[in-house]
């Protein structure tokens, strides 16, 4: 069992950002049990761009995602967590670029949240 020399987890910097002065008012984490968790993975543009009840001028944006119509839709699905893709810079595959396409979902992150 030779260690993988490419793995830098043991020496990679790790941190936690703590903002203890933020006023959360009455907001609290939902604490949904894992067995009851339903995760919905979506791309903001893909989820909102063609929705007929979202105003045209905000379709495909985070503002559209927060629109009451979209919130109601997501609630009706019964999801408990929304995973958005991509929310950080990502690299598209050269093969797709040669075809004039891009990695729309962003599964190839670059410097995640840097």
Automatic annotation (TrEMBL):
Stretch forming the signal peptide: none
Record protein name field: Glycogen debranching enzyme
Taxonomic source organism: human gut metagenome
């Amino acid at each position: 069992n030779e260690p993988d020399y490419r793995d830098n987890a043991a020496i990679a910097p790790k941190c936690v950002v703590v903002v203890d002065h933020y006023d959360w008012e009455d907001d609290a984490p939902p604490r949904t049990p894992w067995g009851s968790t339903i995760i919905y993975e979506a791309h903001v543009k893909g989820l909102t761009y063609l929705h007929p009840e979202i105003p045209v001028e905000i379709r495909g944006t985070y503002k559209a995602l927060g629109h009451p119509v979209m919130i109601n839709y997501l609630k009706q699905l019964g999801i408990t967590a929304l995973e958005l893709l991509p929310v950080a810079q990502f690299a598209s595959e050269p093969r797709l670029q040669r075809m004039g396409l891009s990695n729309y979902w962003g599964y190839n992150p670059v410097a995640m949240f840097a």
